[in-house]
Automatic annotation (TrEMBL):
Top-level taxon: Bacteria
Binding partners and assembly: Monomer and homodimer.
Gene responsible for this protein: moaA_1
Binding site for [4Fe-4S] cluster 2: C256, C259, C273
Cofactor section: [4Fe-4S] cluster
EC number: 4.1.99.22
Name of protein: GTP 3',8-cyclase
Keyword terms: 4Fe-4S, GTP-binding, Iron, Iron-sulfur, Lyase, Metal-binding, Molybdenum cofactor biosynthesis, Nucleotide-binding, S-adenosyl-L-methionine
Protein family per UniProt: Belongs to the radical SAM superfamily. MoaA family.
Record field: catalytic activity: GTP + AH2 + S-adenosyl-L-methionine = (8S)-3',8-cyclo-7,8-dihydroguanosine 5'-triphosphate + 5'-deoxyadenosine + L-methionine + A + H(+)
Length: 329
């Protein structure tokens, strides 16, 4: 029998985001500083077996139906293919959010291990702008990684892009045209206050409405027919379809009421929300010999503290201590 991961507002989490590492080989300037961060020490990071045990508890006891691996950069995790394979064996959907660096080497192995699809980040298709944002001149490698993922059948491949004022905010249409030409589904994400440097400002953020207006100058966007459900993106048909574009208005039109997500950090903390200020320590439970039932119980209790919304607009809003890269985006 499974116990649903329900909160006090009637939402049930079935989508588990698992961060496999807080490390990254890019330095996107809206995510982390040029020098990187103080990475988690190895002994605090869950082992592959510990991760798979927690995922198994989530699936077998708590109704998790979909597992997305993220980070930091999940491709940096040595045991990734094995973790994917063992998760796939549990009978759930598996996906990966990645910057696609190095994916040209691992895409086929990941597909063979049962990975269903990937989401990849690409904020510009101009090499100079890409290098300015990520502080690494690696656009070519990202593009090669995406091609390899497509060839391995890891589709539909969704691309995530963040627009930054004064850097790439004039490139929305160009990114969309490129994505359509290459057979990728592009989604723009509003920049959120989750950067390690705490540089985010509401005033500087490029809003979903601005993105829509910019795209509409070059494409006819019409609401896509299917209901959105718990998906964060508002989806539009481009020039009558079949191509689509998504806009994720996390800040200006929050979708917290439909949230079905729960997060596990690389050091074994359950977070009931990206913006949660509290975490529940499953690693301590695991390492002190707790049974699967006891861990499941702790996880269920962690969900009861989930707030109704992220509250970015509240005067009392406080950015969480962990940046996005250490939570798992
Ligand atoms: N490294 C992988 C990647 O970039 O796809 C996975 C982790 S990354 C934290 C996941 C997603 O979060 C990326 O699409 C990235 O663009 C996005 N992201 C990071 N910081 C963000 C922020 N402050 N606001 C909005 N999205 C952000
Ligand atoms: Fe790395 Fe992803 Fe953050 Fe960019 S957004 S620095 S690729 S974790």
């Amino acid at each position: 029998m499974t116990t649903p991961l329900a909160d006090r507002f009637g939402r049930v989490a079935t989508d588990l985001r698992v961060s496999l590492t807080d490390r990254c080989n890019l330095r996107c300037n809206y995510c982390m500083p040029a020098e990187g961060l103080d990475w988690l020490p190895t002994e605090q990071t869950l082992t592959d077996d510990e991760i798979v045990r927690l995922i198994t508890i989530g699936v077998k006891r708590l109704g998790i139906r979909e597992v997305r691996f993220t980070g930091g950069e999940p491709l940096l995790r040595r045991g990734l293919v094995d973790i994917v394979s063992r998760t796939h064996a549990l009978g759930v959907e598996t996906s990966l959010t990645t910057n696609a660096l190095g994916l040209s080497r691992t895409a086929q192995a990941l597909a063979d291990a049962g990975l269903d699809r990937i989401n990849a980040s690409i904020d510009s298709v101009r090499p100079e702008t890409f290098a300015t944002i990520t502080r690494r001149d690696r656009l070519k490698d990202v593009v090669a990684g995406l091609e390899a993922a497509k060839a391995a059948g890891l589709g539909p491949i969704k691309l995530n892009a963040v627009l930054l004022r004064g850097t790439n905010d004039d490139q929305a249409a160009e990114l969309l045209r490129w994505s359509i030409e290459h057979g990728y589904e592009l989604r723009f994400i509003e920049q959120m206050p989750l950067d390690a440097q705490h540089d985010w400002s509401r005033a500087a953020m490029v809003t979903a409405d601005e993105i829509f207006d910019q795209l509409s100058a070059e494409f006819a966007l019409t609401p896509h027919g299917e209901p959105r459900g718990s998906a964060p993106a508002e989806l539009f048909d481009v020039d009558g379809g079949p191509a689509t574009v998504g806009i994720i208005a996390s800040v200006t039109r929050p979708f917290c009421g439909d949230c079905d997500r729960v997060r596990l950090t690389a050091d074994g903390q359950v977070r009931n929300c990206l913006f949660a200020r509290e975490e529940s320590d499953l690693r301590a439970a695991l390492r002190s010999g707790a049974t699967d039932g006891e861990i499941a119980e702790r996880w269920v209790i962690a969900m009861l503290g989930k707030r109704a919304g992220h509250g970015i607009d509240d005067v009392t809003f406080l950015q969480p201590d962990r940046p996005m890269s250490a939570i798992g985006g």
